[in-house]
Design brief:
Length: about 160
């Protein structure tokens, strides 16, 4: 299964394009369409997009190319388990993994429930648990309104017929 155009459009609504790096709500440097800058990118100032080094500000086309590049491992993270999903469920989970990361998804109770064939209501409960971000000033995990809204969006997408 592949991430759909509908999924891409929904992701772009959640992750607005930014040409310059900015600190997200959890204190991570981010650029483009939700691309979390790596330590190497932060120290060098270079972002590799389709094999070429680029420096911010990024063009919208560069942001789109970077997003596509970032989607490859997230899509693979959901696909590799052979879960029986509808296209909208698959898209919702790729959007979730785009936000939380592959390692977090791989070790999650959400994935365990998906693999066990849990009903949608249990999957939604697990999705909604991912509503905290580390406060960059205090280092403490706190409920984040933006993540509550995002998880609601993903849950609604997951449950669409």
């Amino acid at each position: 299964m592949k991430f759909s155009e509908n999924g891409i459009n929904k992701l772009e609504k959640l992750e607005a394009f930014r040409s310059e790096p900015y600190l997200d709500s959890a204190g991570y440097w981010t650029v483009g369409i939700g691309h979390k800058l790596t330590e190497s990118e932060l120290s060098s100032g270079k972002i590799i997009i389709n094999g070429m080094a680029s420096r911010p500000p990024l063009t919208h086309d560069q942001g789109v190319a970077l997003k596509k590049q970032d989607l490859v491992p997230r899509e693979a993270a959901v696909e590799k388990y052979g879960l029986q999903l509808t296209q909208k469920q698959f898209d919702a989970l790729v959007i979730f993994v785009f936000n939380v990361g592959v390692a977090a998804f791989d070790g999650s109770t959400l994935l365990k429930k998906l693999k066990a064939g849990a009903p949608g209501s249990e999957i939604i409960k697990e999705l909604k648990k991912w509503n905290k971000a580390r406060n960059p000033r205090t280092g403490v995990l706190e409920v984040n309104k933006g993540l509550i809204n995002r998880r609601r969006f993903e849950a609604e997408m997951y449950l669409e017929a």
